[in-house]
């Protein structure tokens, strides 16, 4: 039976050293709750670091046993690993980069080496537990290399990845010296999830530009499989927060705490200590509110919980000092004997007390400068059981995409935040209820259990899609079958596309000349069968490249044909009416002038706009513009506009490779037919093939062909096999 393995840097427990013994404290975080529904079932397991260094082998053995009972397995990290991998590369390079704090980024090759080393450690720990068909769900930025490391050993495993923090724009990613390796590491997964659409779009753009992997609607075409990238906004355990807020224990705390701040409106802020959370900026906004509104003195207080985190990292130490200073300043300036503006706690609270803070506060001020999602704002909304209260939320938090009924603010706009607090303080009761109700309905529906379900369903869907493609793969068995059929045949014909099929792409199309190996393959094949090179290329290039070979050629998608018996003469297969070209060329030229690197290729029956050499992104944009421009003109001239591999082609619809291939076979009885091609122009060939033909598409795109083959290399292997 296959099982599911959850992997995250930290296990959902904390390991504490007390009185010479280790103790486990379960973590009550949202992720632990959401994934609890998975890892506690059957043979499933959670693998991660228990959060403390343990060097003694006996103690390690004891911990392994105890964690086994809890359905967890530890990855032990050395002190050096923690310093270089966790505090170093993860928290001093990736964390600031991914939150757009490039000024804090550390570029240390030793940290990078530790990152690779620890990802490998995780990989080895997983391999001890994982079977070839298991599902492995990797979490977050500390383990970006892990999916690919696992894929190399377990090619058929189901591997998913979820990123909890933002994924920044390509402009930031490209600053990281190891960006290519990081992205390739992530692409070992079958499904990659992010909190928001922007995160996924940034990832797709980076992987396209840096690793050359293009995508269509979130499906990346990797060498031998498709990878899906999608957005899955994470929810919370809604009922847990809603029920806790009504519980006796929490209500007791509400009463007790309430006495200390009687008669005051309460603003609540809760964060881990982190520069991404905008804590100093928030205190400054509160200070400005008090400066501008003397009438609020004594009537509003801020409860500020800062949970200690990463306090060994220098930038966090400095942040802590800055917060201490700002709180000290505001309190010393405004406090009276019976009013303290900021109640500041640098520690964490038990769940019941946290719930009391949510319940009793009038306003939650959640103003991170950047946040992947932010669960605090969702927990506040779920805890407002009487549906009063106002959420002020930063536009820079992933949650702002969902919680449109919050007061949304730009955390860098101090006066904007001040005004938002002022408006929240005076918001009419009915408006508070209306906003709260709508946010609660949405959070209840998309809770953390729903998040897990949607993610897992999507993973199933991707695997099914992949299987549909791989079941058509030309593997060793299919190769043997094709070879056997070819060997038996008395009259065989092979339609072979050129670019992307017999040879790879080149930035300069004229440089994709056939190499010696290819010439040899074609020569050997032509002794055994009728070989037809069927290409979109112009007849002169094709004729020159295959001069002297005993083969047939179809050029320009079927406009020209040259039969081997016709020694040197090209024959027009389709009469060409090209009165339309002047109008279209003018438009294309206009787009060439606006797009450095673009050029026009003229063929007898078509005009092609090439953008392979254009700055990536710009090429796509211009191609889309040109496409919509040409679409209307094409109708008037009865032409067809087609998108190809970095080209846009406009041509007569009745001229295509399929028609030419059919004409070529007319009147002859073939007992072996093979057609191989790599793009949409070859789909016409595949469609035109009789039922008994072998048709093969290079790459793993959806196709009319009956098989897919991985790459040019495999195509050549297959053809060599036919001649052996
Ligand atoms: C990362 C991403 C993304 C806080 N104080 C106490 C306490 N907490 C709990 C809250 C909440 C959690 O900590 C904080 O979660 P956030 O989502 O706000 O922030 P990160 O820790 O930075 O989390 C973030 C998240 O991953 C999930 O994908 O949303 O963007 O940065 O659950 O309740 N819990 C208790 N006492 C406290 O004093 N018990």
TrEMBL record:
GO molecular function, one term: glucosylglycerol-phosphate synthase activity
Pfam family, one: Trehalose_PPase
Catalytic reaction(s) noted: D-glucose 6-phosphate + UDP-alpha-D-glucose = alpha,alpha-trehalose 6-phosphate + UDP + H(+); ADP-alpha-D-glucose + sn-glycerol 3-phosphate = 2-O-(alpha-D-glucopyranosyl)-sn-glycerol 3-phosphate + ADP + H(+)
Annotated pathway: Glycan metabolism; glucosylglycerol biosynthesis; Glycan biosynthesis; trehalose biosynthesis
Keywords: Glycosyltransferase, Transferase
UniProt record similarity statement: Belongs to the glycosyltransferase 20 family. In the C-terminal section; belongs to the trehalose phosphatase family.
Protein name: Alpha,alpha-trehalose-phosphate synthase
Organism this protein belongs to: Algoriphagus ratkowskyi
Taxonomic placement: Bacteria, Pseudomonadati, Bacteroidota, Cytophagia, Cytophagales
């Amino acid at each position: 039976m296959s099982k599911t393995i959850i992997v995250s840097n930290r296990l959902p427990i904390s390991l504490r050293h007390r009185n010479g013994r280790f103790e486990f404290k379960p973590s009550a975080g949202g992720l632990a709750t959401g994934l609890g529904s998975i890892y506690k079932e059957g043979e499933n397991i959670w693998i991660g670091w228990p959060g403390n260094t343990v060097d003694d082998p006996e103690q390690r053995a004891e911990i392994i046993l105890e964690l086994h009972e809890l359905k967890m397995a530890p990855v032990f990290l050395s002190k050096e690993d923690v310093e270089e991998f966790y505090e170093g590369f993860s928290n001093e390079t990736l964390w600031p980069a991914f939150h757009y704090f490039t000024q804090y980024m550390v570029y240390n090759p030793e940290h990078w080496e530790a990152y690779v080393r620890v990802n490998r450690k995780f990989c080895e720990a997983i391999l001890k537990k994982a079977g070839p068909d298991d599902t492995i769900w990797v979490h977050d930025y500390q383990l970006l290399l892990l999916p690919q490391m696992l894929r190399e050993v377990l090619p058929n495993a189901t591997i998913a990845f979820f990123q909890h923090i933002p994924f920044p724009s390509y402009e930031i990613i490209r600053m990281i010296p190891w960006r290519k390796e990081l992205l390739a590491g992530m692409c070992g997964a079958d499904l990659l999830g992010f909190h928001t659409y922007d995160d996924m779009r940034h990832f797709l753009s980076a992987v396209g530009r840096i690793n050359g992997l293009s995508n269509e609607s979130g499906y990346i075409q990797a060498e031998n499989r498709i990878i899906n990238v999608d957005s899955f906004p994470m929810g919370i355990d809604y009922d847990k927060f809603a029920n806790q807020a009504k519980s006796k224990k929490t209500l007791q705390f509400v009463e007790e705490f309430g006495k200390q701040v009687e008669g005051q409106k309460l603003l609540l802020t809760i964060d881990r200590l982190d520069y991404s959370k905008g804590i100093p900026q928030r205190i400054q906004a509160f200070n400005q509110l008090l400066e501008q509104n003397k009438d609020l003195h004594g009537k509003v207080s801020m409860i500020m919980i800062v949970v200690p985190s990463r306090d060994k990292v220098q930038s966090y130490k400095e942040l802590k000092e800055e917060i201490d200073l700002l709180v000290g300043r505001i309190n010393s300036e405004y406090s009276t004997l019976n009013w303290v503006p900021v109640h500041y706690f640098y520690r964490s609270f038990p769940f019941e007390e946290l719930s009391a803070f949510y319940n009793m506060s009038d306003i939650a001020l959640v103003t991170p400068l950047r946040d992947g999602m932010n669960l605090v704002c969702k927990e506040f909304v779920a805890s407002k059981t009487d549906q009063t209260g106002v959420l002020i939320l930063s536009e820079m938090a992933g949650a702002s995409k969902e919680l449109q009924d919050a007061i949304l603010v730009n955390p860098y706009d101090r006066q904007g935040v001040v005004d938002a607090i002022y408006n929240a303080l005076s918001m009419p009761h009915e408006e508070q209820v209306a906003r709260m109700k709508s946010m609660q309905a949405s959070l209840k529906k998309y809770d953390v259990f729903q998040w897990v379900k949607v993610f897992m369903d999507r993973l199933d869907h991707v695997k099914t899609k992949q299987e549909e493609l791989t079941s058509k793969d030309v593997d060793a068995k299919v190769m043997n079958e094709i070879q056997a059929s070819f060997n038996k045949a008395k009259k065989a014909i092979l339609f072979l596309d050129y670019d992307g099929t017999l040879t790879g792409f080149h930035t300069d199309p004229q440089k994709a000349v056939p190499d010696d190996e290819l010439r040899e393959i074609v020569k050997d094949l032509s002794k055994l069968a009728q070989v037809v090179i069927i290409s979109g290329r112009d007849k002169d290039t094709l004729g020159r490249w295959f001069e002297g070979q005993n083969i047939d050629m179809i050029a320009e998608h079927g406009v020209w044909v040259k039969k081997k018996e016709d020694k040197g003469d090209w024959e027009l297969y389709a009469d060409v009416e090209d009165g339309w070209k002047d109008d279209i060329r003018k438009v294309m030229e206009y787009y060439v002038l606006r797009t450095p690197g673009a050029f026009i290729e003229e063929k007898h029956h078509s005009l092609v706009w090439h953008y392979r050499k254009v700055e990536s992104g710009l090429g796509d944009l211009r191609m889309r513009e040109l496409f919509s421009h040409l679409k209307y003109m094409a109708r008037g001239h009865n032409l067809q506009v087609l998108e190809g591999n970095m080209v846009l082609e406009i041509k007569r619809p009745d001229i295509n490779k399929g028609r030419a291939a059919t004409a070529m076979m007319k009147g002859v009885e073939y007992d072996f037919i093979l057609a191989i091609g790599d793009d949409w122009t070859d789909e016409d060939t595949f469609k035109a093939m009789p039922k008994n033909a072998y048709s093969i598409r290079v790459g793993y795109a959806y196709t009319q062909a009956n098989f897919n083959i991985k790459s040019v290399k495999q195509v050549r292997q297959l053809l060599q096999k036919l001649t052996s």
